[in-house]
Design goal:
The complex is a heterotetramer. Chain C is 35% helix and 19% strand. Chain C is α/β, with parallel strands linked by helices. In chain D, helix 6 packs across helix 9. The chains are: A mainly alpha, B mainly alpha, C alpha/beta, D alpha+beta. Bound molecules: flavin-adenine dinucleotide (FAD), iron/sulfur cluster, FE3-S4 cluster and FE2/S2 (inorganic) cluster. Iron/sulfur cluster (SF4) binds next to helix 4 and helix 6 of chain D. The site of FE3-S4 cluster has 13 residues of chain D, from helix 8 and helix 9.
């Protein structure tokens, strides 16, 4: 009598849709990091004076930059949505015996996100 | 108490995830859409304005967090992703590389911001 | 190769685990084996829904619980056993609480109780509608604490080992390897549960095949009161899945095809309006005892008032008036089961139900310590008959019984083990190797044979339902007795397709069928001999209760051609037989 | 002509086969049949050699878990009508060693569960005697752990978790949820002992929050959530330990 160990391959991740979605979720972090490096470069250009900075900013108008931004945006939005949707799993709150509904917890984060976005836009663009 | 250093990485990962979720989308919209398509008037990100803004300590700190924390978020996720796709045997070097990268980015960010 | 312990539990359900913990707690030096054909948490105690009875509230009294139990059992209960059971019940359920059982609670933090059928006062402790599940997992998880408990998970016991007039262990098959071994013990406690699978429609899981009853019967230990089989009035048609009595305890009603609450026609009281704050009235209408409700169903069917469906006739259990919120809070599992297995949501539609075989009042004859006629051999739980359930068990007494008598059997068996240390290992090994040969010859290596296990099982199911079911007669029972004889003959000609040693479930099905045929035989013959009607045993040819002749427990002994049925007195202490009255103001 | 459908079942018998294979059976299609009913039909009427575990047929004993079209399910609660007329592929729960056919080996889980100490560990010296009655526990306190006590040990969550598939040293979802069930019980004081496992490198920190454990859990235990919450509380512990090492030593 011997047991049979089924082989597990690393392509396991491609075998079921939920796993693929998970992998995409994890890979959003690459785009997150990418954009942060972009911000870092932007700040670095600031230290190099107006010229360097202006050239860098001008490059934002190029089609490739726009394309890269759009792709990044898609992934980062995916990150935001999955992140907020998971918050009620971690924040389990009770009002007496009743659990505060998950949509309410996630909803609060979405609302917070909207507020933060408006504030950031206002700060960056107008002040 | 079980000894594990994961809590430190995990808390940085979580903080980074939250910051990224909250502020990155709008920033990307600004630098990737609003600016190139001229939807927000005349050069709102001009050098003088941004430079003076970033000179504020508070803004520096915020920018520092916005750059550094998501790097740790990446480091943590990417580390596990690499392990998951089969690099388990080299999981320690991977961890060093990933977190090392985030730390390096953090230092560069700190130094750069300091210099403004 | 064979193993030896001080005490061997056969069965890892509620009774087996409670007994094991009792021993482990009283004496940490004793080595305990828990042998179970499934992982303990799969045991059918897991399926119990409604709750467990014990008096704790001020509006209740021990005397009430005793009265309800004795009257519910139609005076077939041994009153000394009932008294002791009721006295120890609160302590046992409190013990479960201390072990972490998630009992539902009152706002003040005390344990909540609910009403149950045949009970004068609400006294049923519950954990939503998964009481058995929570009790079993609490016991199982608690048992992990004791390292003097050795588990034999997925070991299938086949035979009791008797040596020098004493039970000294069992033989069992390790399912994963197919090896047959003796598991020796200075004392053995049988806790193998019921045998509902003898019948076609049952709330019982596939593992409830009367193994322990049969093993005892084969070893010469009598089976007591086997004619008393409880039908639960509200099972789902087809699957037999139980819709707990708690559904009625919370206010659910039973109606026939005209939407009429037919129970009022069967001396179960007058219905109150469902919106009346006093509905449901205890010991009345829907909260009458199970035997009477099941019998009322048959009468309605004969009047043509039931609803015919794909799995025979049904009536409706209506809980809609409770509303979604209460249903989700108090009986969520009822909703889940109805949705999954009957395709209806009880919030919006009534649930189709029919009586299904649920519980064996009878079993291995034991005294109040769990001891049997065979020294060193004890029994507890549904496979035993201490006689607290009489001719009809009251809902929610059984889970408590597992605890009270599981613990008692554990303590008594431990004492026996300490006093009788000698074990005849050599002879046991010899017996084990004989058993190995028998199993090899009759099953593993059996060639030829034409009978399919499934066909024999089906025929047994059919004869039991039609002739030994809710209503019986001499004619029908004689047919069943003959049929069982025939099936036993045919069993020796079964066809075994699977010859492998490793996890051979065809082998276990065959062994289980062989056990069930024994138990079916004991049931049919005991029922034939009892020429009266009492509790769940209703004879159409003898419709009256006969206290003169039958205030007696039947004892079935296996013997060559037919079992021998003997009798012994019911223990009556303070509560002389009376009429069973339901639905009346007291 | 009655409708039929096909079941493709994983077969492995160590005494005969060195490799597993799939065997296809044709079964009658019945509206109200669960996959388990169909498998029972095969066992009874077509092929007596097929082995699998089952008992309650009502989704509570936890024995009948199988991969049904690659998704872990209780076969007694997965209905043919949801697949008809396509073929259904049935395999033993993923990630576990196969004993025979659909029967998989559970030893790993049993060891992990035992190590987790899933029972009430009372505060020393403060145990209540039985005569003093029950511990008081409000419905709210009950609600805090009730969900985690609903686990039927069916192990679907293990079969769904890719992390466990790749690394079976991971303690895994159900075991952690059961540890947390006791940690959150107002009667228990054993958290420190359980943290040794929960907060170790084989425990919660291996979980990358794939979340499939919760998606397949038939009893809505939500082990994924439990694990993430344990990460939060263990992180708080860690900071307390590091930042105020002199505090909180009892
Ligand atoms: C659906 C349902 C609902 C119920 N609801 C209630 C209720 O609300 N209240 C109440 O009081 N009662 C209720 N009951 C009755 C009660 O649950 C049972 O009587 C009780 O659980 C039986 O427990 P047990 O320990 O005797 O047996 P079980 O829990 O059936 O355990 C039997 C054990 O024996 C083992 N075993 C059997 N044969 C062998 C063998 N050959 N070799 C090795 N091991 C073997 C099995 O593996 C198992 O571990 C209900 C019963 C059912 C079916
Ligand atoms: S957590 Fe859910 S899926 Fe996992 S074993 Fe428990 S009940 Fe099954
Ligand atoms: S699927 Fe596995 S990775 Fe974590 S969230 Fe569940 S345990
Ligand atoms: S058979 Fe019990 S859970 Fe499916």
């Amino acid at each position: 009598m011997s047991t049979y160990h089924r082989p597990v391959s690393n392509t396991l991740w491609l075998k079921r849709k939920p796993y693929i979605l998970f992998m995409i979720r994890e890979l959003t972090s690459v785009f997150v990091a990418g954009y942060c490096i972009f911000l870092l470069v932007l700040v670095y250009k600031l230290t190099q004076g107006a010229n360097a900075y202006d050239n860098f900013m001008a490059a934002l108008n190029s089609p490739s930059s726009v394309a890269l931004h759009l792709i990044t945006l898609v992934f980062v939005l995916y990150h935001t949505i999955t992140w907020f949707n998971l918050t009620p799993k971690i924040l389990v709150l009770y009002r007496g015996e009743e659990r505060i509904p998950q949509w309410l917890v996630a909803g609060t984060f979405y609302a917070g996100w909207a507020v933060v976005s408006v504030i950031v836009a206002w700060l960056v663009l107008t002040v | 108490m079980a000894k594990s250093n994961e809590p430190i990485w995990w808390s940085l990962f979580s903080a980074g995830g939250m910051v990224a979720a909250m502020v990155l989308p709008i920033l990307i919209v600004i630098t990737g859409i609003l600016i190139p398509f001229d939807l927000v008037g005349d050069n709102p990100l001009n050098f003088e304005k941004i430079y003076s803004a970033v000179s504020h300590l508070l803004i520096k700190l915020i920018l520092f967090a916005v750059i550094s924390l998501p790097l740790f978020h990446w480091a943590h996720r990417f580390r596990f992703t690499l392990v998951d796709v089969g690099l388990k045997s080299v999981s320690t070097p991977i961890a060093i590389l990933c977190y090392g990268g985030a730390i390096a980015g953090t230092i560069v960010a700190a130094v750069t911001l300091w210099n403004i | 190769m064979n193993s030896s312990h001080d005490i061997v539990m056969v069965g890892g359900g509620g009774a087996g685990l409670r007994a094991a913990i009792a021993v482990a707690e009283t004496n940490p030096d004793l080595s305990i084996a828990v042998v179970s054909k499934v992982y303990p948490m799969r045991s059918h105690t897991v399926a119990a829904e409604g709750g467990a009875a014990a008096v704790i509230k001020d509006n209740d009294s021990l005397e009430n619980h005793i009265n309800d139990t004795i009257a519910g059992g139609d005076w077939m209960c041994d009153q000394d056993a009932v008294e002791l059971f009721v006295n120890e019940a609160p302590r046992e359920l409190t013990q479960m609480e201390h072990w972490g059982c998630p009992w539902s609670r009152e706002l003040d933090g005390t344990v909540a109780v609910r009403p149950f059928g045949g009970m004068k006062t609400e006294r049923t402790w519950y954990a939503a509608d998964k009481t058995g599940f929570h009790m079993l997992h609490t016991l199982f998880q608690t048992s992990l604490k004791y390292n003097n408990i050795t588990r034999y998970d997925e070991w299938f016991a086949t035979k009791i080992l008797v040596e020098n007039g004493r039970c000294q262990g069992v033989t069992a098959i390790e399912l994963r390897s197919g090896k047959v071994e003796a598991i020796a013990g200075r004392s053995v406690i049988m806790c193998t549960g019921g045998a509902g699978r003898i019948f076609p429609f049952t709330t019982n899981g596939a593992i409830k095949t009367g193994d322990g009853m049969s093993m005892a019967y084969r070893a010469g230990v009598p089976l007591k009161d086997m004619e008393f089989i409880q039908y639960h009035p509200t099972g789902l048609p087809g699957t037999g899945i139980l819709i707990t009595e708690a559904a009625r305890g919370e206010g659910g009603i039973l109606v026939n095809k005209d939407g009429y609450r037919y129970l009022q026609d069967y001396e179960l009281g007058k219905p109150l309006d469902i919106n009346d704050p006093n509905h449901p009235v205890k010991k009345s209408m829907e909260l009458g005892p199970r035997d009477r409700l099941s019998q009322a169903f048959v009468a309605e069917r004969e009047k043509g008032k039931t609803i015919s469906g794909p799995y025979g006739h049904v009536v409706h259990l209506d809980v809609r008036h409770l509303g979604e919120k209460k249903i989700d809070k108090k009986i969520p599992f009822v909703r889940e089961l109805s949705k999954n297995y009957a395709g209806i949501d009880p919030v919006y539609k009534p649930i189709p139900v029919r009586p299904v075989v649920h519980y064996m009042m009878g079993g291995i004859d034991t005294d109040i310590t769990g001891a049997t006629a065979l020294p060193g051999f004890y029994a507890a739980g549904e496979c035993a008959c201490v006689s607290i359930n009489g001719a009809n068990r009251l809902g929610s007494n059984s889970l408590t019984e597992l605890l009270v008598f599981g613990r008692r059997a554990g303590t008594a068996a431990a004492r026996f083990a300490l006093e009788n240390t000698a074990i005849d290992t050599a002879s046991l090994e010899l017996q084990a190797s004989d058993e190995q040969k028998r199993i090899g010859r009759n099953f593993f290596r059996k060639a030829g044979g034409t009978e399919r296990i499934f066909i024999l099982r089906k025929e047994m199911n059919e004869t039991m339902e039609t002739s030994a079911g809710i209503y019986r007669s001499e004619k029908s029972l004689k047919e069943t007795c003959d049929k069982i004889k025939e099936l036993k003959d045919r069993f020796s000609n079964i066809n075994m397709e699977d010859k492998s040693l490793n996890f051979n479930t065809e082998l276990t099905s065959a062994l289980e069928l062989e056990f069930m045929l024994d138990v079916a035989e004991a049931i049919a013959y005991s029922a034939l001999e009892r020429t009266e009607s009492r509790g769940s045993h209703q004879r159409t040819d003898f419709p009256e209760r006969d206290d003169e002749k039958f205030l007696q427990h039947s004892l079935a002994y296996q013997s060559d051609a037919e079992p021998r049925i003997d009798y012994k007195d019911v223990v009556i202490t303070k509560w002389p037989p009376g009429a069973r009255v339901y639905g009346k103001k007291e | 002509m009655a409708e039929t459908m096909k079941l493709e079942i994983f077969r492995y018998q160590s005494e005969k086969d060195s490799e597993p294979a799939f065997q296809t059976y044709e079964i009658p299609f019945r509206e109200d049949w669960a996959v388990l009913d169909a498998i029972n039909h095969i066992k009874d009427e077509i092929d007596g050699t097929l082995s699998y575990r089952w008992s309650c047929q009502m989704g509570v004993c936890g024995s009948c878990g199988m991969m049904i079209n690659s998704v872990p399910k209780l076969s007694c609660s997965a209905f043919l009508k949801d697949y008809y007329p396509d073929k259904i592929r049935v395999e033993p729960l993923a990630s576990f060693p196969v004993e025979k056919d659909l029967v998989f080996e559970m030893d790993d889980f049993m060891t992990k569960l035992t190590d987790m100490q899933p029972y009430i560990i009372p505060k020393e010296g403060e145990e209540k005697a039985l005569e003093e009655g029950e511990y008081l526990q409000s419905p709210t306190e009950l609600a805090h752990f009730k969900q985690y006590s609903m686990c039927i040990n069916c192990l679907l969550c293990y079969a769904a978790c890719p992390v466990y598939a790749l690394d079976s040293s991971f303690i895994g979802p159900a075991t952690i949820a059961l540890g947390q069930r006791y940690n959150m019980d107002s009667r228990d004081h054993g958290r420190d002992a359980r943290q040794e496992h929960i907060a170790s490198n084989k425990g919660i920190w291996k979980c990358t929050f794939v979340g499939e454990c919760s998606a397949v859990c038939p009893k809505h235990v939500d082990p994924a959530a439990t694990i993430q919450r344990a990460k939060v509380s263990s992180t708080i512990d860690w900071f307390k330990d590091v930042l105020i090492p002199w505090g909180k030593k009892k």
